Amino acid sequence: MTQPSAPPARYDDLRALFVNCTLKPSPAPSHTQTLMEVSQAIMAAQGVRVTHVRAEDLLLAPGVYPDMTEHGAARDDWPALFEQVREADVLVLGTPIWLGERSSTCSRVIERLYAQSGDLNEHGQYAYYGKVGGVLVTGNEDGIKHVAMGVLYALQHLGYTVPPQADAGWIGEAGPGPSYGDELGDGRRAGFDNDFTQRNTTFMTWNLLHLARMLKDAGGIPAYGNQRNAWAAGRRFDHPNPEYR
Amino acid sequence: MTQPSAPPARYDDLRALFVNCTLKPSPAPSHTQTLMEVSQAIMAAQGVRVTHVRAEDLLLAPGVYPDMTEHGAARDDWPALFEQVREADVLVLGTPIWLGERSSTCSRVIERLYAQSGDLNEHGQYAYYGKVGGVLVTGNEDGIKHVAMGVLYALQHLGYTVPPQADAGWIGEAGPGPSYGDELGDGRRAGFDNDFTQRNTTFMTWNLLHLARMLKDAGGIPAYGNQRNAWAAGRRFDHPNPEYR
Amino acid sequence: MTQPSAPPARYDDLRALFVNCTLKPSPAPSHTQTLMEVSQAIMAAQGVRVTHVRAEDLLLAPGVYPDMTEHGAARDDWPALFEQVREADVLVLGTPIWLGERSSTCSRVIERLYAQSGDLNEHGQYAYYGKVGGVLVTGNEDGIKHVAMGVLYALQHLGYTVPPQADAGWIGEAGPGPSYGDELGDGRRAGFDNDFTQRNTTFMTWNLLHLARMLKDAGGIPAYGNQRNAWAAGRRFDHPNPEYR
Amino acid sequence: MTQPSAPPARYDDLRALFVNCTLKPSPAPSHTQTLMEVSQAIMAAQGVRVTHVRAEDLLLAPGVYPDMTEHGAARDDWPALFEQVREADVLVLGTPIWLGERSSTCSRVIERLYAQSGDLNEHGQYAYYGKVGGVLVTGNEDGIKHVAMGVLYALQHLGYTVPPQADAGWIGEAGPGPSYGDELGDGRRAGFDNDFTQRNTTFMTWNLLHLARMLKDAGGIPAYGNQRNAWAAGRRFDHPNPEYR
């Protein structure tokens, strides 16, 4: 069985953007951030250029256009954040769980990502092609998988590649209780010794790096059969339907 | 803008398994199958060895063990189907929508895939690592995205890689109405001329091929930071938590 | 503050059907059943006629017709189970969680309930009008709310009334671990001392009884503005759209 | 078959609050509002006091406390909106669909409703007991049921009663296309002649009225077996678990 002692590649040309969708602006402590820092540390140890942004420190206007100031908003910090999204090879969204759902802030971020889905890259593919995405979720009692379903769905639908096991998180037993990283009476901190949470966060991180490496080396997703403008121009790439021309 | 006239690679060493989770056994017509055949035809044109299985033609026993005959079931066709899953580089699940959800049969298939999640490959990774997955959904009125969320989530959680835009489907306007492929009064067939459905099915298919090619050429997902047995043996792959050893 | 010492009514004319959607046929122990028994005991103490059915002890054929033997199935136990559904004032579905979703068996039961959605009662309302529904969910780590969302949605969409807080369940901390009722090392049983689980199960049970009482005393949901045949015959009940007649 | 010519009761003592969770502040046209107005008109014709609020006309601060100005927010319009929620017997949330999900604004509203879930009424029940809730959803192609699942789940979990068929909406065929109420080339408006949408919206509206009438006449949900403070004080209401006292 292969258990290599060193990573199979270098990752120090990669950029990763971590967007924390906690409802709390800085400098309030964020349980979600505490977990995100685990993944960030692994990437940083490999030389990845990691940026962490807290969405509620910005003013992301509601709407589905790239720049809402062109549609009546007084201010919109999305265009600047989108520059960071565009430069990043890896995007990790972090979100708390409220009533079993991702935060409204996380939905806001995804709505704005979606607003750019008309953008095409130089190959006529959606702009997010060639990037990889993952999600980290924290709550006190329920909902990691449900939240991850929606976030990862959105990312892949927009063009991100989702590596194996690209979600991780922590929740406690059903009912009210401590959140990730809260100090417990005995000096331990909630979730820090949860093997499942720590292992999955680690595996997610490495799988993001592996796929990002692979895609970057390949120059993105091969441009064939997935170019929006080629399709619009009538190319069909072996699509068989005789009635559909 | 690059619009290559030919695919960037050959795919004739790949195998693809399409599992149709319609509630209807053969030979009843299946709307879902009609859409799946679009994707299958594109792959077949590239020489991919395509297998189509209808789950309700088999007896997949309820349960979460690899072989339910060892747990009291009189018969279980899952072990044979799993052999096909294991040999396939690409897995596409197709499902109808009932009351906004995937079919019970689709859930059954996913439960049985999950039953094998303890299997590890020769690198100590989950057995589904290195494979790619997608989903095709048909209904008459609502639910493609919701169904796709759950199916793609399960696939990536099990170890599949999810390429960009790995879901496609067809639904009609809200309320009762024709299903995919039903003959309409005017000789047309429902959904056959839906640009969104046909384009997304095509893009999904090619993205599955591109990622399957890439992963096969790389020998799977690099085995580092994601080996279950290495983690169990204490390796931590730059995991930073000083309290977590 | 009002804290009455006795229930405000009698409930001994009510019938409740509990359908356990575990993947395991009898007599295998079911964690879900252990929780369902809490709710059943409260109802039984009030004289409610309680029936508990394990779906996997029956053969519920796949399909969306009331009797699948008329559509090729060799056997179908649904028609008999539906008689019990029809007689019950209260329906509680219990389900385990697999990969964050309700069991395939639970989906099968809902598909068959849906198959009867064309049935109308004597007022021309959907047949499930006047009944109340709830859900109990057990798993080892995640998904009560997500599963409850789907089940309660289906029930209300079919015509059930959903009382306040009609869902309850138990899950443990993220990751593998004991299921509801499993014996822990120290003699305790998982979830038995979880205040949230036990309280919510109790509240759910009483709210089902309160609403069932209210609806039975009222002769069901008043038959006005919700009669499918009246609508089909052209009645519009103050619907305002001048273009829609 | 009973088809009464007049409503079975009067409803002019009821209040209904419709919260439109479109991403667009007034006076931008809202497709969701166009559908909500159907329900509102039916209620108004019965003398119900109807209020329509567009959430994005307000500043609802992110967070899960009743008044976020006490937690650092410069402004928070939630406390004033909550007064309207508290006075209303009926709450209808309206939301558009983005990428298959409810709007971020809708999630924000639900988070703030949740922030009040510690409030108890004079019987020691959750403050939302005795109220009824429903949801209206519009999009151009997919997601009514998925969105309704989450919204109705939240409402019942908070204490609202969900009547039969308390969701309605409109979407068009898969892919880009007109939204509800958009003018089509032929003078028609999208969805106005959709029988399913108009019927379900009507049935939802009447079922909200019927249940609101019933609950108001009963003085709310009977206060037994569901009082948070009674439970906290040790009352168990026939809960059977000998180990749980």
Written overview of the protein:
The structure is a homotetramer of 245-residue chains. The first copy, chain A, is an alpha/beta fold and 245 residues long. Chain A has a single domain, classed as Rossmann fold. Helix content of chain A is 33%, strand content 14%. Chain A has six helices and six strands. In chain A, strands 1, 2, 3, 4, 5 and 6 form a six-stranded mixed sheet that branches. In chain A, a hairpin with a 2-residue loop joins strand 3 and strand 4. In chain A, helix 1 crosses helix 5 and helix 3 runs parallel beside helix 4. At the A-B interface, helix 1, helix 4, helix 5 and helix 6 of A face helix 1, helix 4, helix 5 and helix 6 of B.
What attributes does this structure have?
homotetramer, 245 residues, alpha/beta, Rossmann fold, 6-stranded mixed β-sheet, 6 strands, 33% helix
Task: Describe how the helices and strands are arranged.
Four copies of one chain form a homotetramer.
Chain A: E1 15-20, H1 31-45, E2 49-54, H2 78-87, E3 90-98, E4 101-102, H3 104-115, E5 132-138, H4 144-158, E6 167-170, H5 195-217, H6 228-232
Parallel strand pairs in A: 1-2, 1-3, 3-5, 5-6
Antiparallel strand pairs in A: 3-4
> Rounded to an integer, what's the Rg of chain A over CA atoms?
19 Å
CATH superfamily placement of chain A: Flavodoxin domain
The overall pLDDT average of chain A reads 95
- Oligomeric state as shown: homotetramer
Largest interface: A-B, 77 and 77 residues
Portion in helices of chain A = 25-40%
Number of helices of chain A: 6
Largest sheet of chain A: 6 strands, mixed
Q: What general form of chain A does the structure show?
A: globular
End-to-end separation of chain A in angstroms reads 51 Å
The CATH topology of chain A is Rossmann fold
